Structure to design on (530 residues):
């Protein structure tokens, strides 16, 4: 089948069906119009015949001496046969035929026509119509006219031919249109698949680079420490501590990476919020100073909430780091906590340029980033952490102010 | 597939052209043609009185006068003519009238008047 998509096939045949029905309707309409026209012509011819016979009989009646030949209604044959649409005329007075101009083969009209002509009857290519007529006293005539329908039939046949040609042409055009739509659709599917594969490859490349970068520094530290201890020939407690810290960092990193694929498994424990914020401040203050940023962390009164301390700290840290990156040099970043009856909210506000409107919808999607060196996982991690706690994120951004609210339920 | 489409289309076209072929029209007078040879006794449009060699008289209906004018037909009493036509009632409806080498035509082979407009 030239249309590979089932939906396209269905739509094509439905369209063809509608087209076919429209064609039939058009032919029906043409036929109806032609038939009505034929009936109208027959009635006009009948009225014309009434007038002509009437005038003729009136003249005969008024003339003092009428030649014998003039009393023969065959006198009108030339005139009536000169009418282009008139096949023939029959004038009868009782059983006596006064005039019959019908062609030879129709000279003896079938009984069926004589019986049904009062309502009008169509036979072969002729429409017959008749009626009684009394133009002068005591002369009651039966008049019958036969109208030639060959022209109407020919018009209809030509209409059928043209309509079929239109239907064929339309059908072929429709088929071609659907063929190209189908081909384009298949091509689009192929391209989408290729694009997806390319995107996957690119992501894999980015991830590999990120992992290599994250692993290389701790590994270097470990190797250098071990090398140093091997050279000096004794164990240094300080170096061992560093090696242990770096190894822990690597373990933490692999855990994080696994969490992206497996999903988060959080371990909530009673967490002191002021302590959490203090740790955040200690961790990020050096960088804030290096960028000349006014970094303010407001402590609330002692509040303890059940949270996964490590992940929540990492989530807030990611938002603040993003704010630092957005600010560049100078500016202000403020972190504070709001306690509500059912939840606790960490607010992070910065005075950066704001997030463009077109980026706001994808902000928390994985691998979405506007930074050249970023991987687009920071805010995705924030979302995962908050959702894993049953909370939600709100944010608003405009030039000069961006505010994130991380809502964590207390329960 | 393409060949069957082309053949199908051709078949439809032939079928439809067959449908559109005109049927043979009816003849007004079938097998009724008569021939009369005689002399024009009187001509008074639209009636011509013809007398044959046996002395029988015929009333020949000449058709509309404008048709004669248009065709520049002309006949005079005393002319020897041959009339080929059809008889209806008291009248003869000529298909043609031959006088010497001149032929005056009034109806076609099927009997339809030449002054009848075509549809």
């Amino acid at each position: 089948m030239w249309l590979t998509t089932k939906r396209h096939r269905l739509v094509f045949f439905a369209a063809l069906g509608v087209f076919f029905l429209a064609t039939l309707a058009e032919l029906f309409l043409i036929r109806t119009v032609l038939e009505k026209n034929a009936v109208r012509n027959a009635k006009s011819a009948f009225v014309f015949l009434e007038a002509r016979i009437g005038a003729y009989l009136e003249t005969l009646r008024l003339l003092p001496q009428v030649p014998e030949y003039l009393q023969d209604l065959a006198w009108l044959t030339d005139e009536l046969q000169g009418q282009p649409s008139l096949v023939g005329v029959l004038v009868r007075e009782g059983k006596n035929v006064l005039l019959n101009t019908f062609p030879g083969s129709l000279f003896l009209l079938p009984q069926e026509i004589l019986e049904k002509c009062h309502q009008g009857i169509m036979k072969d290519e002729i429409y017959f119509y008749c009626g009684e007529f009394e133009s002068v006293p005591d002369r009651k005539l039966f008049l019958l006219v036969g109208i030639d329908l060959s022209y109407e039939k020919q018009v209809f046949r030509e209409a059928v031919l043209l309509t079929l040609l239109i239907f064929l042409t339309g059908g072929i055009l429709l088929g071609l249109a659907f063929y190209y739509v189908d081909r384009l659709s298949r091509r689009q599917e192929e391209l989408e698949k290729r694009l997806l594969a390319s995107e996957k490859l690119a992501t894999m490349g980015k991830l590999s680079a990120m992992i290599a970068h994250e692993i290389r520094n701790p590994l270097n530290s470990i190797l250098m420490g071990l090398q140093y201890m091997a050279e000096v020939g004794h164990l240094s407690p300080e170096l061992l501590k560093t090696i242990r810290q770096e190894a822990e960092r690597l373990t933490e990193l692999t855990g994080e990476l696994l969490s992206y694929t497996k999903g988060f498994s959080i371990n909530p424990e009673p967490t002191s919020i002021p302590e959490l914020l203090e740790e955040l401040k200690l961790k990020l203050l050096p960088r804030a100073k290096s960028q000349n940023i006014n970094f303010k962390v407001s402590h609330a009164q002692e509040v303890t909430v059940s949270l996964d301390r490590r992940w929540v700290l990492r989530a807030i840290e990611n938002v603040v780091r993003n704010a630092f990156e957005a600010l560049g040099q100078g500016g202000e970043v403020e972190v504070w906590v709001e306690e509500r009856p059912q939840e606790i909210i960490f607010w992070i506000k910065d005075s950066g340029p704001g997030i463009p409107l077109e980026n706001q919808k994808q902000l928390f999607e994985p691998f979405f980033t506007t930074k050249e060196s970023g991987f687009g996982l920071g805010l995705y991690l924030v979302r995962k952490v908050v959702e894993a706690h049953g909370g939600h994120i709100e944010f608003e951004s405009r030039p000069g102010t961006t505010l994130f609210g991380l809502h964590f339920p207390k329960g | 597939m393409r060949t069957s489409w082309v053949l199908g289309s051709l078949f439809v076209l032939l079928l439809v052209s067959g449908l559109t072929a005109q049927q043979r029209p009816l003849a007004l007078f079938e097998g009724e043609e008569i021939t009369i040879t005689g002399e024009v006794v009187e001509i008074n449009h639209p009636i011509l009185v013809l007398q044959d060699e046996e002395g029988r008289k015929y009333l020949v209906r000449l058709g509309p006068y404008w048709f004669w004018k248009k065709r520049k037909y002309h006949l005079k009493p005393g002319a020897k003519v041959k009339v080929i036509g059809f008889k209806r009632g008291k009248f003869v409806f000529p298909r043609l009238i031959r006088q010497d080498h001149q032929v005056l035509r009034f109806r076609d082979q099927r009997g339809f008047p030449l002054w009848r407009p075509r549809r």
Chain A is about 55% helix and 20% strand. Chain A has a mean pLDDT of 87. The radius of gyration of chain A is 50 Å.
